[in-house]
């Protein structure tokens, strides 16, 4: 079996066993890559997970030319590269969690402070933050009946203490 036939066989095997929707168009299609991976910026591996990597590795070994086996150094290098990419993906997820926690802390620190924000029309509003909540991707602040994203805040000031009543 030639290396081209082996690649085609591996490609077919992976495309039929990969989870999700796969795209295999033309002679050089994408092996087992989920279509949603192209739109998910957090997916560093482009839809390839460890299962697909292992299936590709097994197919590569299964269909290799017995008279010219794969160099063990190259195999080790591929495995090391995959490990690095996998760890970078985990690090990226951890960084996102740290950023989310920092944003939540920033929003909580604005409780009781006077903020100025711009609405979708570009109009500026000012008021004292009375509540915070988590939106779809960022924290939200509430002033009176208005709820807006932390990203919309243009300035923050301390709220003066009310004058003592006698």
Topology summary:
Blueprint: H1 3-17, H2 50-62, H3 72-109, E1 114-118, E2 124-128, E3 131-134, E4 139-143, E5 146-149, E6 153-157
Antiparallel strand pairs: 1-2, 1-6, 3-4, 4-5
Quaternary state reads: single chain
Shape: rod-shaped
Order of helices and strands: HHHEEEEEE
How many domains in all?
Answer: 2
Structural class per helix/strand content?
alpha+beta
Biggest sheet character = 3 strands, antiparallel
Low-confidence segments, ≥5 residues, pLDDT <50?
17-45
**How confident is the prediction overall: mean pLDDT?**
75
Helical content stands at 25-40%
| Rg measurement, Å | 27 Å
- Write down how many β-strands occur, each being a DSSP E stretch of 2 or more residues: 6
Strand order of the largest sheet: 2-1-6
State the end-to-end CA separation: 96 Å
Number of helices: 3
Beta-strand portion reads 15-25%
Mind explaining what this structure looks like?
The structure is a single chain. The protein is of the alpha+beta class and 166 residues long. It folds into two domains: 3-101, no CATH class; 110-157. The protein contains three helices and six strands, in the order αααββββββ. It has helices at 3-17, 50-62, 72-109; strands at 114-118, 124-128, 131-134, 139-143, 146-149, 153-157. Strand 1 and strand 2 form a beta hairpin. It is rod-shaped, with a radius of gyration of 27 Å.
Give a brief rundown of this model:
This protein is α+β, with helices and mostly antiparallel strands and 166 residues long. It has helices at 3-17, 50-62, 72-109; strands at 114-118, 124-128, 131-134, 139-143, 146-149, 153-157. The longest helix is centred in the middle third of the chain and has 38 residues, at 72-109.
